[in-house]
Amino acid sequence: MALPKMQQALAVGGVTLFAAAAAASLATVSPSLLTLEEACRLLGLGLFAIFAWKSRSLTPWIFFAMLAGGELGHDAPVFSANLKFLSDIFLRLIKTIVAPLILASLINGIAGHGELKQVGRMGVKALIYFEVVTTFALAIGMAAINISKAGVGLTLPAASGTLPPAAPMHWQDFLVHVVPENIAKSIAEGQILQVAVFATIFGIALALLPEEKRTPLVRLMESFAEVMFRFTGIVMYLAPVAVGAAMAYTIGHMGASVLLPLGKLLLTLYISLIAFILLILVPIALWAKIPLRRFVEFVAEPATIAFATATSEAALPTAMENMEQFGIPRRVVAFVIPAGYSFNLDGSALYLAMASLFVAQSANIHMGWGEQAMMLAMLVLTSKGIAGVPRAVLVVLMATATTFNLPLEPMLVLLGVDAVMDMGRTSLNVIGNCLACAVIARWEGELPAYTEE
User: Pick from 80, 162, 72, 88: which is nearest to 415 by CA?
Assistant: First the structure.
């Protein structure tokens, strides 16, 4: 639904004024100008707050909190560095939702579907889609860093510590890891893919039972999933506070000036993320006849949450709920999005390809096209295990460096701005998974007619 012109003007004017004043504050040290810039930033925030109030929607408030948190972190860094507990509380509540929601939704989606052949067909289509799109992401990441050469000539700081070597990751290890040994342990540790594997097998077994024995448990799972969605709705009221606290902590703890020495790398990453959206995701959406404006409306909230918290899990319940509201049946949402969290992390894959070559460039190691092609082929496999453990992007990156005899010390430079880069790649992960869900639903003929308007 289009916004009134007055609300559009408030939103655009507020963001533009805030961004211009923020950019000016980084470019000058004049006290008189700083006072004017602070006033402009606060005025911009005020205009956007009016827009958020008039919109009566949670998404503008989340975006406002992200800007306000950045301003607070810049103006009061000591105070802001103590606000991390607010975002931690929100993330803890979200983590209590994710595994039970996936478990109940996926079991209900499979057992209540009635046609296991269609479930299997949908799974094959999803895996093919994930593989193709992830490969494009890796290729764009490699192309971007080859063009910008952000690591060439970079002066590495004196290492204050060393990174332990990482053993190369093999596909056998990944396959073993995705199989749960204890479902309670998998839920407690937030192992989404293990929960999804258990739920898939459980759902298939439940679907094979006679209807009179299957129906009570299917109804229980359906009711449980509904409760978890309501739980999500309650928790999401805390999202603006958590998002603002997360941004304030990031800026207050690191400082905005930390971005300048590695500005070329950050610019390369964000330009490549935008390029991936415009060159890959938008054409896919047009090919699948996904209504872009309507899709953006429903994906904006989970993408903003993912950007501010740099955590895919924080956006997962909202992404699933919004895709259902978009018109995708729950059985498709419950199957595709959880699987995509391990097999379709487009932003993380793009970053891995870029970071691997950045390490080589910063160490003055030339890698030919043949070696880069071999690295891409390896990342096609190893990137699928990114969601397995916390900070798994770094684990995969270290394993890649070990395999290709690259030094580990340049990764210390990446760690300095990893939080800022993680925001962009996590947001793209969420957008890519939501689009994958819509494409698979279209492929299966499951999107209602009104989503084409």
Answer: 162
Task: State both tokens at 193.
Answer: 């893919």
Q: What is the pTM of this model?
A: 0.69
- Cα 125 to chain centroid distance, Å, stands at 22
Q: With 0-12 CB in 10 A as exposed, 13-18 as middle and 19+ as buried, what is 401?
A: buried
Residues 79-444, CATH architecture:
Orthogonal Bundle (1.10)
The Cα 328–Cα 445 span in angstroms is 10
Q: What is the pLDDT of residues 288-329, one digit of tens each?
A: 999 999 999 999 989 988 887 777 777 888 898 899 899 898
Neighbours of 212 (CB within 10 A): 7
Residue tagged 């319940």 (tokens): 317
Q: Which two tokens stand for residue 356?
A: 């691997």
Question: What distance in Å separates the CA atoms of residue 304 and residue 300, rounded to the nearest whole number?
Answer: 6
Asked whether 187 and 194 are in contact (CB, 8 A), the reply is: no
Q: CA 434, 202, 115 angle in degrees (round to 5)?
A: 70
Q: Crossing angle, helix 58-75 and helix 5-27, to 10 degrees?
A: 20
CA distances from 313 to 100, 310, 380, 419, 453 (A): 13, 9, 22, 16, 31
Q: How many CB atoms lie within 10 A of CB 19?
A: 13
Write down the domain spans for the chain.
79-444
